[in-house]
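If you are new to this repository, start here. Below is one unmodified record pulled from the training split, so you can see the exact layout before writing a loader.
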Amino acid sequence: MKFISISEAIEKKKGKIAVRGWIYRERGSNKRKFLILRDSTDIIQCVLEREKFEENWEEIDKLQVETSVEIEGIIKADKRAPTGYEISVDKINIIGFSNEFPIQKDLNEELLGDRRHLWLRSRKMTASMKIRSAVLFALHEFSHKNGFIEIQAPSMSGAASEGGSEVFEVNYFGKKAYMTQSWQFYAENFVNAFEKVYAIAPSFRAEKSKTPWHVTEFWHYELEGAWMNLEDDMNIAEKCIVYVIDKILKENKKELEILEADISMLKKVKSPFKKISYKEAVEKLRTKGHKIKYGDDFGSAEERSLAKYYGNSFVFVTNYPLSLLKFYHGEDLKKPGTGTNFNLLAPKIGELVDGSQREPNLDKIIERLKKAKIDLGASNWYLDSRRYGSVPHSGFGLGIERLVAWICGFDTIKDAIPFPRTPNRFNP
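And here is the target side for that same chain:
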């Protein structure tokens, strides 16, 4: 018989079928064996009666979790089965034996990390990775529908884009090279050729942070547009988030159910998002008992709290003091001393998107670089975007894992990436 997926078998509802996959759960007695079979689409209960398999019952009775098998039989509805259907098995072909699968219910995070390549087989991780894939696809789709061109930039360069100590240095044929922290320097030059560009690629941050919301290698959705101001930038970011969530609600209902995600919270995500200034944010935090003053940067606790205080929803915070911003952030001439920048904060997560209208004036950038005692060195080519036909432009970066974790309701972004990298883990 031709093999079909388990989800196709369930859709068929009755009749003779052939499926294949891995044993997800098993139990039984001396007369009957129950196998819960999984493939990439779903799970289904399979019942093997001893009287049909007397010759090889001893082998069948010893089948363990993650053994791969091919099964033929009759599918029928059964409310007692996990997915409402079961297969009465007529034929089984054992493909690959599994013995004492090393993933048990009570493993801690460290041991699950050691066995990450096997933990990906769990329903939780399978559902998570499917949602991650759908998020990535939706971001590509959104970008193209809005006229943005996908462009790639190197993962290594001769200088750090963001600077500071949070950069990975590598030996590049006897010379120092650095893993990219962002594609932004390239993006700001791309816009002079393509006007509207985006990329989805890994970024690397040598942060020794051990919080649930940080990894040293994460995936970045970054977008840049010529002629875009701060309002345009926030509008695109907002539409992007709404588009992705709507897409997931429509196309990933099964995965959301498996993860027991709060679908009602996802359905509440609508435009427009709340917008407040940094100054307003500080005042709100102080009224709620936070010990913070104007000029202080927000920690993740303050960011999560702000989202909670403003309706437990997404909130834009704009116009941070220039002293907290990078040299390329623009200055809001209507509010001197503050930047044309924003952070989009999400409930339970904190910062989800970081964006700004960039400073288009070369002289001002050079002045800021001198004031901050920053020598661009090998990255001086970046300033060619201002030397030769500078235009107003804006962009942002969105953390893929943070968005996936928020959608799924995870307590850590480590569940939103296949193989998380942290200061203490770079294997498997």
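Two things worth knowing about this chain: The domain at 6-96 is CATH 2.40.50.140 (OB fold (Dihydrolipoamide Acetyltransferase, E2P)). The two ends are 38 Å apart (CA to CA).
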